[in-house]
Q: What sequence folds into this?
């Protein structure tokens, strides 16, 4: 039975799972949901994911939500190529990068990106500036990790890269919007502010099938 992925365009969490599926070369049926049409909250979808969020993966009879859990499931079930490390040390460092992303980037991202994209809370200028400062610190940490490697952990792409990348793309997209101008986010031009991150973004964008994962509404 085919793998089914329920996702939303532009969701960084869904993007993580799509990239995982593509990097592993797994076929899947795309179930694109539109939040604006209430499709995250239909009774049928809530039976799969009671939180009414994307992504959700269905593999045969097994249903799983939470992007990191899905990535880890896919890696265990379809181990080629391994994305959670080949040694205990790599696995530890990959989970550290993912935990750092969840603990620091995701919450700061919410405070910066939501107001810029949706126009709500743009008056909370100080909160946005502080969150932007956190994001710059995190980008700096990531940038330094590329000092002697092309990838966040080890010498190949791993779950650390796949888990972090969609958040970075989302933040860069927000930074490029006109509504971001008053906040001086200090992210762009990326090649000047965080040159190693810029090269890593290009490396991921060059992956085969990357374009299939790119949020469709970002092309419009
Ligand atoms: N921790 C979850 C986060 C999922 C999440 O927040 N998804 C957002 C889209 S980016 C969503 O579906 N939001 C809809 C809502 O909260 O109603 C994961 O990693 O899968």
A:
């Amino acid at each position: 039975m085919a793998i089914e992925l329920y996702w939303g365009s532009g969701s960084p969490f869904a993007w993580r799972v799509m990239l995982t599926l593509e990097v592993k070369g797994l076929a899947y049926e795309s179930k694109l949901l539109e939040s604006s049409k209430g499709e995250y909250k239909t009774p049928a979808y809530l039976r799969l994911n009671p939180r009414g969020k994307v992504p959700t993966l269905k593999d045969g009879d097994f249903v799983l939500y939470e992007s990191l859990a899905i990535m880890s499931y896919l890696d265990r079930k379809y181990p080629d190529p391994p994305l959670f490390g080949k040694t205990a040390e790599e696995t530890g460092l990959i989970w550290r990068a993912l935990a750092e992303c969840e603990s620091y980037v995701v919450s700061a991202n919410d405070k910066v990106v939501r107001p810029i994209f949706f126009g709500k809370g743009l008056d909370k200028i100080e909160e946005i500036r502080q969150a932007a400062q956190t994001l710059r610190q995190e980008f700096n940490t990531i940038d330094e990790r590329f000092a002697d490697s092309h990838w966040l952990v080890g010498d190949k792409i791993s779950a650390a890269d796949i888990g972090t990348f969609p958040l970075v793309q989302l933040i860069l997209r927000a930074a490029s919007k006109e509504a971001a101008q008053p906040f001086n986010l200090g992210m762009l031009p990326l090649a000047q502010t965080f040159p190693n991150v810029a090269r890593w973004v290009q490396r991921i964008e060059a992956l085969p099938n990357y374009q299939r994962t790119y949020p469709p509404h970002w092309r419009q």
